[in-house]
Design a protein that fits this description.
Shape: extended
Strand content: under 5%
Distance between the termini: 48 Å
Number of helices: 3
Helix content: 40-55%
Largest sheet: none
Structural class: mainly alpha
Number of strands: 0
Radius of gyration: 23 Å
Order of helices and strands: HHH
Length: about 80
Amino acid sequence: MPALEAEREEAFAGAERRAGRDPNLPADEVPDGKDETGNVEHHHFGAKRNYAFTPKQHFELGEDLGFMDFESAAKLSGARFVV
């Protein structure tokens, strides 16, 4: 059985190497866009909710509740990280 296990490991390692080498290409119907504002919504499930208040983004809630500290994170590691 050790020979089969070695063969299996080699096959998995080869598959991982090939997967890491191949790019993750978008589908042909995905439009090219300059940035995230060029995104197109294809499907929307469920009814839109109407709140009696203006919902906040997750990072606003995190900062307001003291769970996220972007200022300290920027000093430690740079932009787009959180502490």
